[in-house]
Write a structure and sequence with these properties.
Blueprint (H helix, E strand, L loop, with lengths): L2 H14 L11 H14 L3 H21 L4 H7 L4 H12 L13 H8 L7 H11 L8
Helix pairs in contact: 2-3
């Protein structure tokens, strides 16, 4: 590849992600722009994987430290990944504790959601199959 062409491509890409030059994402507008870029780049993930990872790191840093995420971050701190994933699925599919026979009865589901009981490998496998997601999302 021609080095000038490569340099031009890099400079063009960097102008789109100006928040890198300023040391990261510093505003809600830059955050939204970064999320939009990730969405667009994800259409050809294999080709854009490195750039997606760079932008995602900046987004994660912003979301971990921005005041508008402080309340959310404090609520999810210490929540087990499997419980967090289960809560997302329950929310997205408008489910109740009685809608998850993969875990057990209402009482068992409630105990899992509150962290009193842990999900087993079998629970995770069944949920992953039902919702057509990777079991890795629960870890």
């Amino acid at each position: 590849m021609n080095l000038q062409k490569l340099s031009d491509s890099i400079n063009s890409a960097m102008s789109e992600i100006s928040f890198f030059a300023s040391g990261g994402i510093h505003s809600a507008d830059e955050h939204e722009h970064a999320l939009s870029m990730i969405d667009e780049l994800s259409e050809d993930y294999e080709r854009n994987e490195y750039l997606i990872d760079l932008i995602a790191s900046a987004v994660q840093e912003y979301e971990n430290n921005a005041p508008e995420f402080a309340e959310f971050n404090s609520r999810v701190e210490g929540v087990e990944p499997c419980v967090a994933m289960l809560k997302v699925l329950v929310d997205q599919h408008n489910l109740t504790t009685s809608d998850l026979p993969e875990i057990g009865g209402k009482s068992m589901v409630s105990q899992v959601l509150t962290g009193k009981k842990q999900m087993t490998r079998k629970h995770i496998e069944r949920l992953a199959q039902r919702f057509n997601v990777s079991p890795a999302l629960f870890f």
